[in-house]
Amino acid sequence: LSWNVSYPEQAVHFQLLIRDLHFGLLFGMSDRGEFENADLAVLWSDGHNSYFGDAWSDAKGQLHMDPQQDYQLLGARRAPEGLYLLFRRAFSTCDPKDYLIEDGTVHLIYGILEKPVHSLHAINISAIHRGLQRVQLLKPNITVPELPSDMKTMEITAPDIVIPSQETTYWCYMTELPDDFPKHHIIMPVITAGNEALVHHMEVFQCAAEFDSFPRYNGPCDSKMKPDRLNHCRHVLAAWAMGAQAFYYPEEAGLAFGGPGSSRYLRLEIHYHNPLVFEGRHDSSGIRLYYTATLRLYDAGIMELGLVYTPVMAIPPGEDAFLLTGYCTDKCTQLALPAAGIRIFASQLHTHLAGRKVVTVLSRDGRERQVVNADGHYSPHFQEIRMLKEVVAVFPGDELITTCTYNTEDRSRATVGGFGILEEMCVNYVHYYPQTQLELCKSAVDPGYLHRYFNLVNRFNDEEVCTCPKVSIPQQFYSVPWNTFNRDVLKSLYGFAPISMHCNKSSAVRFPGEWEKQPLPIITKRLREPVPHCPPAPGPRPATPVPLNLGELRR
Amino acid sequence: LSWNVSYPEQAVHFQLLIRDLHFGLLFGMSDRGEFENADLAVLWSDGHNSYFGDAWSDAKGQLHMDPQQDYQLLGARRAPEGLYLLFRRAFSTCDPKDYLIEDGTVHLIYGILEKPVHSLHAINISAIHRGLQRVQLLKPNITVPELPSDMKTMEITAPDIVIPSQETTYWCYMTELPDDFPKHHIIMPVITAGNEALVHHMEVFQCAAEFDSFPRYNGPCDSKMKPDRLNHCRHVLAAWAMGAQAFYYPEEAGLAFGGPGSSRYLRLEIHYHNPLVFEGRHDSSGIRLYYTATLRLYDAGIMELGLVYTPVMAIPPGEDAFLLTGYCTDKCTQLALPAAGIRIFASQLHTHLAGRKVVTVLSRDGRERQVVNADGHYSPHFQEIRMLKEVVAVFPGDELITTCTYNTEDRSRATVGGFGILEEMCVNYVHYYPQTQLELCKSAVDPGYLHRYFNLVNRFNDEEVCTCPKVSIPQQFYSVPWNTFNRDVLKSLYGFAPISMHCNKSSAVRFPGEWEKQPLPIITKRLREPVPHCPPAPGPRPATPVPLNLGELRR
């Protein structure tokens, strides 16, 4: 599969090479990769004749011909290596049965027909061999910058450790730069080969410059043996999460490291997710840094937006689309950003397994101005660093509001915020320049108001929740009887209660100021949902399949 | 103005007779009769030439030509009595700028152009002479039944009383049927001439048959002088409210009165609304009953659905669309309806001044089945008894759910349920046959749960609400600080808390059974919003005005 995006035409041209065609194939898109309610291009053969058509599958997986044919077949060609199919699909067709191709993740699905079929209706979708590929179809047309001739590489990898036989491990490994390593710019961080299946995400942090030295350490991050000083290693140099591919810095910026005023000490943190509790697995995963001594115009930075990792932000069980929102307030950006502002050029969205959508919106003077990054078909298994279509300027006093949508229909107890894979996060790592001291601009509900919520649930529901101070917040959430009232009131609480702001420098130190019980940003004007642009209908298209002259299939 | 509805064509043909045309006119429809965001047919003249076109006005009242011309001019003809304009409009045009003609109230607006204008854009909508007429455009095509030859009339009117000089008065007047008046059927109740401007609504009730006599009374219904026995006069014989026109019983039914087992005593109740506190106004308003001795197949009945008149159901101030719902539960219909069910043939929706929409839905086995009556542009100034397009069958175990939408944007304190014009009601008087003992099937939130709400608001908002038991419920509502949390939680409460059911016979006696703390009906499947049926586009229509050959206007 390959594809070309034409922004002027607002259409995608797909080219499929089918190496071993049997009696046809299905190719298409659906909300999250399911074969029900999918929008499909279908090539099928009854053994003698072949047909191509635009179809859709209903909630039961039954295929139907689409009255409006929006997958336009442009060509079908046999070649020694297989059959080439070329077809075109507009981003938006204004056909309610069709998938709307948007900026974020697209779940491409495909299936192979192993037997001849006499019609579209005869295809049994549950019996076919099928697959899923997550892609960002509408990647912006950014040319890959030329790599400088003086480029060097450095690998920061785990030293052949044994992955603990438990579900969630955050592993910490301390390493250091060579003596007298001068300032360089990282221009491309790449994951090294390793146990990709068990690595959920990893990050390379630089330590705080105010300490002359840091102890060596190689062990779990939550161990009591871990020296406290490692908590001062929080400046992100490189990050990778499941599904992410190589990412290039734009020509005008690179991530500074080395040189005076910069610590030699680095901390590699790897989140291992080992649900089957494999024992004795060795790992040397890590990140390879491509860097140059030819400094670029700007030092780049990485900033975390969204929610603080705390159990006070929780999702009731059995929700199909529950929203949590984290704020980077005007007060924080006022204090931490330069007058000329910063420019965000890339973004990596991050949640754990319940995440379904993530969006960050820029708001100024109470009015939403611009979407920084949005993924309406977000998958936690596909967390790329994505270049933005256009660079977003953020000025002092602006607000950055990150909202995640979660699905907990398969869970029987509340999902709280935290580090575990079954706990949740709502984070947008934004890549920007010029670098500032602001490393983290996130929020969580005020714990005092959450305490009022538990009291309220307690009293309203006849003392069913234990709010004894000795019980942890997750335990209190687990004991809430989740009726519609308690669900609704939790939503209302998150939409009303003041927040605790984390407006932090890299050393986990807050900027000076009062950050507790801060008012929620007020939005007086929301961005409009974009109205899909419908292509002018090029005359009535027949709802009949297009016969193809491919000869008999199954050569 | 006259119009014809063609249901097969899904279109309305309007005929306008303009007796004194100056330089054109505007005619159209809008949500609630405003001239902004209106859908308009415009005839205008620059003094020499005349044009006709489909236009819309934006939120500022500026007129724009509609790219899709959906008011189709069919003819324009000068006659001695004036200019006739004939045009056609489909119910639904699928143009987002166009008004969707639905079953309920339609606010028709018109304006006269007093000066020549050179273009549509030159029309200043705020400067023109304008008017409003509320109608039900889509009245069902029910033929008026022939009136029987033996039809007689009887007037039940106030005996030249003096309307009290206060805003709200419910006046009670007792009268009686002649001695030995046999059973008859009321077939048409009509309001008599009177102080229509001050009469909000009136009803004729028949008293309970178990009492041999009732005291005479003529005075305010809430007076301490009113004999208690009058509370047993609650069986509705006829009702009228602002805007209602004559209403005919269908041929198979009539409202029984007279004869053995039926009380001779009647109570006329008139709700006077006298906001300007006029003094010394005399009134003899009342209802004229048309009745026949030729009994029809079924005795008809009137049943009240919706909310009990109690302050526990309240609307916060400043809401643009707040919903309150009243239930007639399966338990009540199970007990009170005959196995063969009842047939609802007409419905009168009733709220006070904040009401904007009313809908009653029939639900069976937890699934919504049918809309009984709905008005999405409901006006409290236009409360007709409306014949239903199709008779609705209701069986034991069915649920009737009535939801009212209120707008309190112009109010600074909460609006509670009650009898005053600034208090609210949510009622659907349904007319049905055969008559049953069920006079009233309404609900309100359980008062104990409302008390929990006040406690909760109190604690969550730092003791700002006084919930001392001596303070009335309206006073408690008035003291709530209406932040988003308190609003949201009130909504959640009404959507969650158990209800107190009024499942009453005509004598205000409840059917036997437990009616307090009843569970809310559970709806597992909602009715879909009807998808507007778009007429096939009859070729591209020009977005240019149609020139008319009318000669020079202003003869």
TrEMBL record, chains A, B:
Molecular-function GO terms, alphabetical: copper ion binding; dopamine beta-monooxygenase activity; L-ascorbic acid binding
Show where the DOMON domain sits: 1-113
* One of the record's GO cellular component terms: chromaffin granule lumen
Question: Which EC number(s) does UniProt give?
Answer: 1.14.17.1
Where is it mainly found? cytoplasm
Enumerate the catalysed reactions.
Answer: dopamine + 2 L-ascorbate + O2 = (R)-noradrenaline + 2 monodehydro-L-ascorbate radical + H2O
Where is the stretch described as Disordered? Answer: 533-555
Instruction: List the subcellular locations.
Output: Cytoplasmic vesicle, Secretory vesicle, Chromaffin granule lumen; Cytoplasmic vesicle, Secretory vesicle, Chromaffin granule membrane
Among InterPro entries, the record links this protein to: Cu2_ascorb_mOase-like_C, Cu2_ascorb_mOase_CS-1, Cu2_ascorb_mOase_N, Cu2_ascorb_mOase_N_sf, Cu2_monoox_C, DBH-like, DOH_DOMON, DOMON_domain
Pathway stated in the Swiss-Prot or TrEMBL entry: Catecholamine biosynthesis; (R)-noradrenaline biosynthesis; (R)-noradrenaline from dopamine: step 1/1
Pfam families this protein is in? Cu2_monoox_C, Cu2_monooxygen, DOMON
Report keywords, A-Z. Answer: Catecholamine biosynthesis, Copper, Cytoplasmic vesicle, Disulfide bond, Glycoprotein, Membrane, Metal-binding, Monooxygenase, Oxidoreductase, Signal-anchor, Transmembrane, Transmembrane helix, Vitamin C
**Which GO biological process entries does UniProt record here?**
dopamine catabolic process; norepinephrine biosynthetic process; octopamine biosynthetic process
Q: Name the cofactor(s) required for activity, per the record.
A: Cu(2+)
Q: Where do Pro residues bias regions lie?
A: 533-545
Its placement in the membrane is given as:
Single-pass type II membrane protein
UniProt keyword Transcription, yes or no: no
Q: What class of enzyme is it?
A: oxidoreductase
Q: What does this protein do?
A: Catalyzes the hydroxylation of dopamine to noradrenaline (also known as norepinephrine), and is thus vital for regulation of these neurotransmitters.
Indicate the family of this protein. Belongs to the copper type II ascorbate-dependent monooxygenase family.
Subunit structure, per the record? Homotetramer; composed of two disulfide-linked dimers.
Name under which the protein is recorded = Dopamine beta-hydroxylase
- Species whose genome carries this gene: Eurypyga helias (Sunbittern)
